[in-house]
Amino acid sequence: MTITNAVLPASLRVSILHYCMEKKPHEACGFLLGRIDGATLSVTRFLPVPNIAARPERQFSMDPAVLIPIVTNPSSLYDPVVGLLHSHPSASSAPSVEDLQTAWRSMPSHWIVGLQDEEHCEIGVYCYHHFNHDPNRPGSISGDASSFTAIALSVVEDHDINCHP
Ligand SMILES: [Zn+2]
């Protein structure tokens, strides 16, 4: 089923934004853990991963020493990995062409923190589809509209999250 809604606790939103701001001017990256129930994805945890890209201001590459234990040993985690997050230190939260070509495309959700505007940090949540980049088609350079869909994000107060009643 297609994911159309994402739910993020307010406290996690603060931690994510704080971490991304702290990493400026570098891109921050990490995983989101949580649950998928039908069309709704609920985030329960953010796991930052160090960015070891050669040009961390413009791209991210997750440190394998931290990444591998997370993706190969899910039993040690509270919930499965449901999303991949990275920041755009000086751009909006829209996916870049490079983002849409990621090998992580099949991840259930992609989260981009746009820090272009200091006053207003924005978090975009997307589902990526197959991306056909055709250099002969000028319009394709900025990413095809059909290559991703936006997921509606709801930030909820932590006490609204139903743990175990
Ligand atoms: Zn990006």
Properties at a glance:
single chain; 165 residues; alpha/beta; Cytidine Deaminase, domain 2; eight-stranded mixed beta sheet; 3 helices; globular; binds zinc ion; metalloprotease; zinc; MPN; VirAsm_ModProt
Question: If you had to describe this structure to a student in words, what would you say it looks like?
Answer:
With 165 residues, the protein is an alpha/beta fold. The chain has a single domain (5-160), classed as Cytidine Deaminase, domain 2. The protein contains three helices and eight strands; from the N terminus they run E-H-E-E-H-E-H-E-E-E-E. The chain has an eight-stranded mixed sheet. A hairpin with a 2-residue loop joins strand 2 (29-37) and strand 3 (40-49). The radius of gyration is 16 Å and the shape is globular. The two termini are 27 Å apart. Residues 138-143 have low confidence and may be disordered. The structure holds zinc ion.
- What is the helix fraction of residues, given as a range? 10-25%
Number of helices: 3
What general form does the structure show?
Answer: globular
Q: Regarding CATH, which class?
A: Alpha Beta
The appropriate CATH architecture is 3-Layer(aba) Sandwich
- Average pLDDT reading: 87
Using DSSP, what is the number of strands? 8
CATH fold name: Cytidine Deaminase, domain 2
